[in-house]
User: What shape does this take?
Amino acid sequence: MTTSAPPPGESSSPTEETSPPESPPRGWTDVRFRWINLLLLVPLVSILPFLFNSEEPTLAGLPFFYWFQLLVIPVGILCTVAVHRLTRHVDEEGEQ
Assistant: This one.
C-alpha cells in the first residue's frame, strides 16, 4: 500500500515540525515604483499629436512636426540611459 503526500500546509505526523511557507517567486508582479522611472515617460510625448501638429516653426526648411519627432529620439535615448545608470546598482530591496 502506498501513501500519498499530505496536502500543503499539513504535516504527515502531529510531531513533525512544519517549515514556514516559502514566499512566492518574485517577478514582474513585484515591480516597485522609483521616481527616476518617470523619466521613461518623457519619450511618450511623441505620441501626443496635439503637441506637434503644426508646420511652424520651421528649422532648416523642415516643418515642426518633422524636426520635433527627430528631436524626441535622442531625448528618449538619454532618458533611458539615465534611468539605466541610476538604477543598475540598486538591488531588489531598493538599497544600493
About this structure: The first helix runs from residue 64 to 87. The chain is about 25% helix and 0% strand. Residues 40 and 80 are 6 Å apart (CA to CA). The chain has a mean pLDDT of 75.
